[in-house]
Design brief:
The protein is of the alpha/beta class and 294 residues long. Helix content is 51%, strand content 17%. The protein has a seven-stranded mixed β-sheet with strand order 1-9-8-2-5-3-4, sandwiched between helices. It starts with a helix and ends with a helix.
């Protein structure tokens, strides 16, 4: 498939109201859940970690909502990426903790924004970059034809992309030294040697150590940032919360604990289908899993 064809399809979908797209997304979420046993099993397994010790009725309620919200997160992308930027930003109905964003930016020490796989993190980046130059880590998609589409959607306003490699990490450090902001997905599983195991909802998850190193070397401020999808296509609410690391406790553990608190505020909008607990290639756990399959 050619990038031009995908862009044409995205432009066509972007003409629809967000309310309609979210309705179609909910249908897509359920179709995916019902047709893909592997996808459904992972979603249920990860959600069960969150729901441990809670009533089964609560699990079923969040599960049903999560299936629909996961579909919305895909179908809303054409609207977020292809609609006029001013129109997209107008869908941000409320911003909580904006004073923390202003204060961190005024410090001049750089700003690390940590955003989990929660709701529409694409609109969050656009919102931040409307005020502050923002550099975000970017992993090249497996399908080459999607690279141009994703880049054109994300590189809007003051957003710059840094590849997920050593050169990209240098780019992030330079952005912090300039006193600007960088964005990271702290629940993205890093490559072997770039993380450590830390509990996430009671189960070990390989967690990036990059955040702690960057904060220590640059003195940058750290904020948790996330968007919450409002019902019926009404738009989004955005939240900023400062995160200060305590000495003597692994930064990875503190990050995961902070993410858990955020996710508990709107568990249905977290991407439970993401393989958060996978072992990176080359790790001991990955080798053990490979041997068990042989």
């Amino acid at each position: 498939m050619s990038p031009s064809l995908v862009v044409w399809l995205f432009d066509l979908m972007a003409r629809l109201p967000l309310r309609i797209l979210h309705g179609l997304g909910a249908l897509l979420g359920w179709a995916t859940y019902l047709l893909s046993g592997k996808y459904a099993a992972r979603l249920r397994e990860n959600l069960a970690n969150y729901n441990a010790g809670r009533h089964p009725a609560g699990f079923r309620k969040v599960l049903r909502a999560s299936v629909a919200e996961a579909g919305k997160s895909i179908v809303e992308l054409p609207w977020v990426w292809r609609r006029p930027l001013a129109e997209v930003l107008a869908k941000v109905r409320n911003c909580y903790g904006h004073e923390f964003l202003d204060e961190a930016h005024r410090s001049g020490k750089g700003l690390i924004l940590l955003t989990p796989h929660l709701s529409c993190f694409e609109i969050l980046a656009l919102y931040i970059a409307a005020e502050i130059p923002l550099t975000v880590m970017y992993s090249t998609p497996r399908r080459a034809w999607m690279d141009e589409v994703i880049r054109s959607g994300r590189q809007r306003g003051q957003i710059s992309l840094a590849r997920a490699d050593i050169g990209g990490i240098r780019t992030l450090f330079k952005a912090l030294k300039r006193g600007t902001a960088i964005g990271l997905l702290p629940d993205q599983v890093p490559s072997q040697g770039e993380g450590e195991w830390a509990d996430f909802f009671g189960r070990p998850a390989y967690t990036m150590t990059l955040v702690g190193r960057m904060q220590e070397l640059t003195g940058a401020r750290v904020l948790l940032s996330y968007a919450v999808r409002r019902p019926h296509g009404e738009g989004y609410d955005i939240h900023f919360t400062p995160l200060e690391f305590q000495a003597g406790i692994p930064v990875t553990r503190q990050i995961n604990s902070a993410l858990e608190k955020v996710i508990r505020t709107c568990p249905a909008q977290y991407l439970w289908s993401y393989n958060r607990y996978k072992a990176p290639s080359g790790s001991e756990l990955a080798e053990e899993s490979r041997e068990e399959q042989c």
